[in-house]
Amino acid sequence: xxxxxxxxxxxxxxxxxxxxxxxxxxxxxxxxxxxxxxxxxxxxxxxxxxxxxxxxxxxxxxxxxxxxxxxxxxxxxxxxxxxxxxxxxxxxxxxxxxxxxxxxxxxxxxxxxxxxxxxxxxxxxxxxxxxxxxxxxxxxxxxxxxxxxxxxxxxxxxxxxxxxxxxxxxxxxxxxxxxxxxxxxxxxxxxxxxxxxxxxxxxxxxxxxxxxxxxxxxxxxxxxxxxxxxxxxxxxxxxxxxxxxxxxxxxxxxxxx
Length: 257
Hints:
single chain, 257 residues, alpha/beta, Rossmann fold, four-stranded antiparallel sheet, globular, cell membrane, ATP binding, P-loop_NTPase
């Protein structure tokens, strides 16, 4: 379980990016994080994966408080958190298999990783994950030979290769066409259900968020202004999060999927 308790982040210039944010996510739950640009979504993700130190509050994962840790302790914690990036963050000159195996870098020695000599169990797991995300036949291809959707699938497999306790997913569909976006969201939901993994998906597409997540957290100006089910995300709530707009078209889009 992930627990975020009264987390605030104030940058040196005095800008408050997060304002007393609290929530918990049990194992297996997929949460969509929505809100306008500048609402604090990316800062929250960065606080959870410990790239940013909160100004106040605490974050715990599996009962371990991960705020205020030393650099050595953080290296261990980050192995437990799988990140899936908007721009894929693959090493394009390396093969698909090598990119997936890079998910084990936090577990193997420097020389093993440098020589790309991963334990047999890690390689077997990587093949199984590539099969799960539908890329077994592309294992030997360079990453730069893949489509956007295929690259995102490699990113998913790499994150799962870590054996994470939590997935943090940053705009996984931002660069994808509508059909591929739905395929990626469906795959993420299925995998989280299969592995009983909690996940936070930072996503701008409200239609996709409503369709593929079971819970939505809405941020505005660094504060949580909504935390509920997709069915509870009414026009009134959307206006509270984003401001005035004709949200009936959003409802029609959702119904047509």
